[in-house]
């Protein structure tokens, strides 16, 4: 089969389209013929091995799994003997290791039936980004109907899902984004939008019950100024910063600072759960959640897809089609 492979950590230039062996499903695996694969920030971190902290989990000198990609949508080709929830021909979506390929093996617990009202491209961009947004708002943020929510990075991959999910959960939503994404953020349901290049959301004019920060490296002190006295800050991921821990320092410091202030400050480590995929599929089929795709690339152009995503200009998500 064809796959996007890398032998060493590096830039997108380290990726190559190669012929490799088709994986064989284990007892608990589902073999999926890939139709589309989402591109998210985790792909860039695994490709570069940055920050260095990631290498402790994914390979010290080179990626343990040489095939990139983690979000997937496709059709079941075969199942292991312990798999009971899927059968060949089922259309599924979820996460697996090495989805920039014609076939991939996924654990049964990490996939679900594809939303009926979503294309393969649309379904493929949901599993990590939308799950992260959902867990940040509902689980870590404890979002309640009627609360005022600020979403930073509202026009990006996680942010575009977060705006819609916060609205579906009954919040008043303010989205922070760049000038070129203002109309997109309005179109997906934000009640208010803030252009971060021209306005300061932490100027004291408004305070929020919950802030979901999906983009950037603003200091905790700045973010706290926009929170209500007993508000909650949830930090998603981390970009920038040093080569050892990247922008994740804020996520490490937040819960420590939270011990000494009335506000709740948290870093989010999202987990991939089948029940969340099922919940998101229900929202998509009900019309409450619509994946936003900026660009689509064929499998051979996956390196360019990663470059474009990492530049931060994508309106919503980027997808690789197979």
Model description:
This protein is α/β, with parallel strands linked by helices. The chain has helices at 41-48, 55-58, 120-124, 127-140, 157-168, 182-187, 220-225, 249-258, 274-286, 302-311; strands at residues 2-5, 16-19, 29-39, 71-79, 91-95, 103-107, 111-113, 148-152, 172-177, 192-195, 208-213, 227-236, 264-268, 293-298, 317-321. Helix 4 (127-140) packs across helix 5. The longest helix has 14 residues, at 127-140. The chain is globular. The protein starts with a strand and ends with a strand. The relative contact order is 0.17.
Low-pLDDT runs of 5+ residues are none
Distance between the termini: 11 Å
Number of strands: 15
Query: Count of helices?
Result: 10
The level of helicity is 25-40%
Task: Return Rg in Å.
Answer: 19 Å
Arithmetic mean of pLDDT: 94
Shape: globular
Name the helix and strand elements from N-terminus to C-terminus, one letter apiece. Answer: EEEHHEEEEHHEHEHEEHEHEHEHE
- The secondary structure category is alpha/beta
**How large is the share of residues in beta strands?**
25-35%
Major sheet summary line: 7 strands, mixed
Could you give a quick summary of the protein structure above?
This protein is α/β, with parallel strands linked by helices. The chain has 10 helices and 15 strands.
Descriptive terms for the model:
seven-stranded mixed sheet; alpha/beta; globular; six-stranded parallel sheet; 322 residues; 10 helices; single chain
């Amino acid at each position: 089969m064809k796959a996007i492979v890398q032998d060493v950590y590096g830039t997108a230039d380290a990726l190559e389209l190669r012929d490799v062996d088709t994986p064989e499903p284990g007892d608990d695996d589902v073999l999926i013929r890939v139709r589309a694969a989402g591109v998210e920030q985790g792909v860039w971190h695994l490709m570069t091995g940055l920050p260095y902290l990631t290498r402790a989990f994914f390979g010290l000198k080179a990626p343990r799994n040489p095939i990139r990609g983690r979000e997937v949508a496709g059709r079941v080709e075969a199942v292991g003997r312990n798999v009971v929830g899927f059968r060949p021909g089922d259309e599924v979506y979820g996460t697996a290791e090495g989805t920039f390929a014609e076939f991939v093996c996924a654990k049964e617990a990490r996939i679900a039936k594809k939303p009926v009202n979503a294309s393969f491209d649309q379904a493929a961009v949901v599993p990590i980004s939308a799950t992260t947004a959902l867990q940040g708002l509902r689980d870590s943020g404890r979002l309640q109907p009627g609360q005022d929510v600020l979403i930073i990075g509202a026009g990006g991959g996680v942010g575009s899902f977060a705006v819609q999910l916060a609205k579906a959960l009954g919040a008043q939503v303010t989205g922070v984004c760049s000038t070129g994404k203002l109309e997109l953020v309005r179109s997906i349901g934000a009640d208010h939008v803030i252009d971060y290049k021209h306005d300061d959301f932490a100027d004291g004019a408004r305070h929020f019950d919950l802030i979901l920060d999906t983009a950037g490296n603003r200091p905790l002190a700045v973010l706290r100024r926009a929170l209500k006295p007993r508000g909650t800050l949830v930090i998603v991921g981390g970009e920038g910063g040093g080569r050892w821990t990247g922008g994740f320092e804020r996520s490490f410091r937040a819960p420590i600072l939270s011990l000494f202030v009335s506000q709740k400050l948290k870093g989010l480590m999202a987990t991939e759960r089948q029940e969340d995929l099922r919940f998101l599929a229900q929202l998509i089929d009900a019309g409450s959640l619509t994946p936003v795709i900026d660009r689509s690339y064929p499998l051979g152009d996956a390196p360019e897809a990663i470059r474009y995503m990492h530049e931060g200009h994508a309106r919503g998500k980027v997808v690789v089609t197979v």
